[in-house]
Amino acid sequence: MSGAAKWLAPALLSAAALGASALYVRKKTRDAERRHPPVGRFVNVDGVRVHYLERGQGEPLVLIHGNGSLIQDFMVSGLVDRLAERYRVIVFDRPGFGYSSRPRRVWTPRAQARLLHRALQWLGVEKAHVLGHSWGTLVAISLAVENPSFVESLVLEGGYYYPTARADVVLFSPPAIPGIGDLMRHTVSPPIASLLLPKMIDKIFAPAPVPDRFHRLFPKELILRPLHLRAASEDTALMIPAAAEMQRHYQELVAPVVIIAGADDQVVEIRRHSERLHHELPGSELIVLPRVGHMVHHTAPDLVIEAVDRAAHRAARAHSAAAQEGTTAAVWP
Asked: Per the CB 3.0–4.6 Å rule, which of 118, 159, 194, 237 could disulfide with 173?
């Protein structure tokens, strides 16, 4: 057999396998989108088609999901319906997740915060309370730092706030690489991610069990689509530099901050993140929940709702005190 023939046959087999895998991924993507259509509406902002859900009336409350997640995360937990009883709840799919588009650019937390701020302005929101979960806490903080008069209060759940060495950055960043990453996402990455997903879900909930409601209602197929995997990989690759950049600005936060975290979180170590941030922000509150992992809003939704209310009440008291001080100053001889 000639040298050319020796490599030609394996190359043709590899190409055929990749082609078959690409067709399989395309079919699974279509099936997932047919089974789980958009749950909300769309707004076009700066060339990005942003998918959002809005429920309830009252003071605006924005929910920002973590890496690899989407709007339904907050819906399945029951948080959206319960908070909508007294807030105007607005939940976004961050760029590339769920049904929001993600043009090729560097989507830092600040870039995502600017996009969401413009989307909220389009929706007529002048001020809002904000809850961010996991990677979404960096977006929530960016929103508050860049728009201090816009963010009334902050609830930060299970956040990653300081640069630390993380194996998952090395393992899950390759699909973000242009070219080879595009090939991976449309062929081998979705099937591999599907195999890894059950263990990953167990880890984010541990030590608590995964709720049956999550198993039944969370649209797992949607998070295995190529664009969603690119968004998750790019966010993973940006995680450490984003935290390194943001930590210089935590002292600029002026809104009331409530930090909530699971004591047994296996994704983000609370001592190096939530507790450290609490010590850096003297006016913040810290709620640590024993025997709870990374998905606090699923495992302990009552306490997350209480944290939202506590932050909102602190903001209301601050406004009342400022108004009273202004009135006193106006009549002072």
From this structure: 237
For residue 4, name the pLDDT band (cuts at 50, 70, 90): low
Residue 211 burial (10 A CB sphere; 0-12, 13-18, 19+): middle
Helices 226-246 and 136-146: crossing angle in degrees, nearest 10, is 50
Q: What is the dihedral of CA 261, 193, 217, 129, to 10 degrees?
A: 40
- Spatial distance between the Cα atoms of 312 and 297, rounded to a whole number of angstroms: 17
CA dist 121 and 149 (Å) reads: 13
Sign of CA dihedral 41, 235, 229, 16: positive
> Contact, 311 vs 59, CB < 8 A?
no
Tell me, what's the pLDDT at 94? 98
CB 223 within 8 A of CB 76: no
SS3 258: strand
